[in-house]
Amino acid sequence: MHSTQLSLQLLAIVLPIVVISSASLAPQGNCTTCLPNPIATIYPFNVTGTINATTSILMVSLPYARSLLPSRFANSILTHAYTRFNIHPSAYPIVIEATIDHDIKFNNTDVVPDFSSIRFTFPFIDRLGDGYSSFRYTGYIYLPGDNPIAIKGAEAYGTTALPAFFDPPAAPYKLTKDGEHMSFAVYTNSSASSRHTYHHLENLVATTVFRDSASISPVPLAFYKNVTNQPMFGNNTKVCDNMISLWNTTTSTGVYAPRSVIGDVMVSPPLVPMKQAFRGVRGIRAERAFIENNYLPCESLQGYSGTGPGDSG
Question: Nearest to residue 33, comparing CAs of 224, 174, 183, 212?
Fold first, then answer.
């Protein structure tokens, strides 16, 4: 996605409704609460950075998941590939990530400004038709309209980039008024005539509101390692994005180890047919380092399962 030529239904656990303030009108900026890229000097000739994200699972029925996928992939879900993560074969784990990509470098040079995003990802897709190679499909992604590099990078894979504003504009989340919940909101500008109207509720297209959870997630960390390292593709089925997420660097270990969270997610078309709220969503918060290999032939990633303990699940 960092395009540079240098480079069942959901189980309902109803939580209290949390009021999210109106969106900041500030443009996308540099994340001052994110950790620095720990691997830029180790992999100088790769695109590297960090992804500070809440990665959550919308556990839906298999028929519903198929209805959201393009018809050519609707019957290509490898259910046997995720049952080992304590997920029933009649269910399907849609992955939603609310993120800010930070400190993106190539050859120790900043190449892409920090940017926020939110997207549905459909993992465990049999993209090659071999019955065992898992890929993840992303049809749509919300991106800041003032970051053309990120937008062009997504579109190169056939993913539709939807210009948006984010609240907060330069952080992975902000605390709500009660101080206990972490919120992230997305506003579109398609029907706005000026920046001063972006905070209107009719332009609110997605929200996530999470809090720390003391209970252990029913889905293990290995699941998150697995799905964030499956090669990504969109509607351009010739090339794939080999995004390697490392979960064993200084940004996601020790005091920065992943935290279990629970909360609510609201999404709108075109991610789903109609605006929908999912409650009791489980996930994790973490900032992980990444290495990105762009525009690889999808066939070259057949059987891909990671490069080592930091990215294999």
Answer: 174
Instruction: Determine the pLDDT at residue 3.
Output: 54
Query: What's the token pair of residue 45?
Result: 């000739």
The answer on pLDDT for 269 being more than 90 is: yes
Peptide bond preceding 168: is omega within 30 degrees of 0, i.e. cis? yes
305-to-86, 296, 309 alpha-carbon distances in Å: 19, 15, 11
Distance CA 58, CA 93 (A): 6
Buried/exposed 132-170: b ≥16 CB within 10 Å, e otherwise: ebbbbbbbbbbbbbebebbbebbbbbbbebbebbbbbbb
- Evaluate whether 59 touches 191 at the Cβ level (below 8 Å): no
- Digit-coded pLDDT (tens) for 185-202: 999 865 444 444 445 556
CA–CA separation, 89 vs 62, rounded Å? Answer: 8
- Which positions ≥6 away from 33 have C-beta within 8 Å? 52, 171, 172
| Residue of 101, 65, 274, 99 whose CA lies nearest to 186 | 99
pLDDT tens-place string over residues 142-152: 999 889 999 99
Output phi, psi for 300, to 5 deg: -70, -10
User: How many whole angstroms separate alpha carbon 60 and alpha carbon 299?
Assistant: 29
Nearest alpha carbon to residue 223 among 92, 46, 73, 111: 92
- Between CA 239 and CA 242 the distance in angstroms is 10
Please give the helix or strand (H or E) that residue 64 lies within, else none. Answer: helix 62-68
Measure CA 115 to chain center.
12
| SS3 track for 175-198 | ECCCCCCEEEEEEECCCCCCHHHC
